[in-house]
Structures are given as structure tokens and as C-alpha cells.
Amino acid sequence: MGVRRETGKDRKDRKGDRFIFWTNEALLLDLIETGIARYKDDSHLWLFRHYHGREDNQLCAAAAIQDALVIKTVMHRFQAE
């Protein structure tokens, strides 16, 4: 399974600050497979999980279920409501 990456200038600038998934595809796949799912509705959800040893603490992927699971964005320091 491959992860398609966006390469806009702003994303590249922020990538260095967060170092979340762009260089670690295995971490994104682990979040998808083992993260806690909280559904907004039938086709939109958040996948989140705490990773011990990460300074930015809990990570979250906002996703949509279409023909495939689409990761819309990745957040760090996420707090579930």
C-alpha cells in the first residue's frame, strides 16, 4: 500500500517542524490499522492514537470513506472531545 504525498511549499515548510508521516509511512499505516476510530457520520471519521516517546503526543488522521479510505489531513497534539 502506498501513500500519496502532497508537496506544496507550505506543507514542506511545516513537515520539518512536525516530522509526522511524510517520512514514516509505517507510522501512518499503524495509525490507520490500530488507531481509535471516532465517526462524524457514515463516511467521515477521525483515527487517533497516542504514541509513547513522541513529543507531539497524540496523532490524528481525519479521513473519509469513499471507494477507498482517504486521509484528508494529519494532526498532532490532538484532543478528542
Explain what you see.
The structure is a single chain. The chain is an alpha+beta fold and 81 residues long. It has one domain (9-76). The chain has two helices and four strands; from the N terminus they run ααββββ. It has helices at residues 9-18, 25-34; strands at 36-39, 44-50, 58-65, 69-76. The termini are far apart.
Mean pLDDT: 76
Instruction: Give the count of helical stretches.
Output: 2
Q: How many structural domains are formed by the residues? A: 1
Radius of gyration: 12 Å
Helix-strand sequence: HHEEEE
* Main β-sheet, spatial strand arrangement: 1-2-3-4
Low-confidence stretches: none
Number of E strands = 4
Brief overview:
The chain is α+β, with helices and mostly antiparallel strands and 81 residues long.
Offer a few descriptive terms:
4-stranded antiparallel beta sheet; 4 strands; 2 helices; alpha+beta
Topology:
Elements: H1 9-18, H2 25-34, E1 36-39, E2 44-50, E3 58-65, E4 69-76
Antiparallel strand pairs: 1-2, 2-3, 3-4
